[in-house]
Amino acid sequence: MKIAVYCGASSGRATGAYKSEARKLGRLMALRNIELVYGGSSAGLMGSVADGVLEAGGRVCGVMPKVLVDREQVHIGLSDLHVVEDMHQRKAVMMELADAFVALPGGTGTLEELFEVWAWRQIGIHHKAFGLLNIDGYYDHLLAFISHAADEEFIRDEYRDFLLVDNRSEGLLDKLILTCS
Question: Are 57 and 31 in contact (CB under 8 A)?
């Protein structure tokens, strides 16, 4: 199984909770023989997830556009690296390679990737599982908005239910694996 992880190239606030849980997710993925597909960077949460996978002996596939290869630090321990033309191709390659998707804390790029995966699932372009790792309540306000949008009948309940959510790496991986089997 391969899981694409979307997350920040930043580590977030100084408490370290995001970075610690990202690394834990990576270790758990490797221990469950799940390959990481991600943006290819050594920076921020992206680097932490990759480090966790590699420390536990797992495989890591990075997908990075040419424009970011020089700007971001490509992780030196990658099992595979796909250098692509642009962000559109990056997302398409990650979508093709992955069996499921996880969003950790991140900014606009992370949200854009999550919502694209969700919209594509909704219209039937794919039937893959995806979820949010809600570390330290990072996504609480977004989840409240999603519930509000559903209450206002802009998101159907069956589409809202596509989004798997857990506060713990173990719980989210269990849900993804169950949904994918």
Answer: no
Instruction: Report, as ranges of residue numbers, the positions in the chain whose pLDDT lies below 50.
Output: none
Per-position b or e across 78-113, b if 16+ CB within 10 A of its CB: beeebebeebeebbebbbebbbbbbbbbbeeebeeb
Domains in the chain (CATH in brackets) are 2-180 (3.40.50.450)
Residue pLDDT, tens place only, 82-128: 999 999 999 999 999 999 999 999 999 999 999 999 999 999 999 99
